[in-house]
Design brief:
Layout: H1 3-36, H2 40-80, H3 88-101, H4 104-116, H5 123-147, H6 152-168, H7 171-184, H8 187-203, H9 209-213, H10 216-244
Helix pairs in contact: 1-2, 2-8, 3-5, 3-8, 4-5, 4-7, 5-8, 5-10, 6-10, 7-10
Amino acid sequence: MSVVEHGQSLIAIILEVFEALLPLVVFFIIFQLLYLKFPSSQLVKLGLGISMTAAGMILFLYGVYNGFFPVGTGIGEFFGKFSHQWVLIPIGFLLGFLATYAEPAVRVLCYQIEKSSTGYIRSELMLYTLSIGVAVFVSIAMAKLVYGIPFMYIIIPGYLIALILMWFSDKDFIAIAFDSGGVATGPMAVTFLMSMAVGVASSHGNRDPVIDGFGMIALIALAPIIFVMILGVYMRYIGRKEEYE
């Protein structure tokens, strides 16, 4: 990209962030004038926070559009041209684990779970459970691309398994499981893993990037639901075992 194209991209992102934050700012101003009545010191902190949020969103989106998307697509196209396509499955497992392990929102969720459960559910246990779960389902998504498995053959049995696990899992883990599904589909997964899947599909002559490349995020959202509830089944079993002892 030329300097002009980078400048145009940056301006477009600034306008995009402005459009996203403006309704929230207007909403707050109305409540501030009518109900909240925060002091000026609090308004200064709020203004600084909004400015930092806007700057962070601009930098992040600029990096995503000009860094993560092209890199992810390029990696997907590179591995998609391998003669031994099965290699995408372990690569998907590794990248899925690393992307989830590095996801800031996942770490925040794990910390909140440990804090709210007063240490009963350790943050490290949740972090590794989510990371391994997403890694397994990213590898399944890669197998779907390699072998042409229909998306419905994976997603429908997956949610049926999740519904069945709800009956056996510790009730404390059910709500956590569904929240984890939303958190796991954060910026790292959406920007990198999805673009890589589209790149793999694009490199195949008999694959449609729209039909076969997408669906990755749905599988990533399903992974924590199943794996956290499996953890809940295990914790429930351990709890009952300790009661009888």
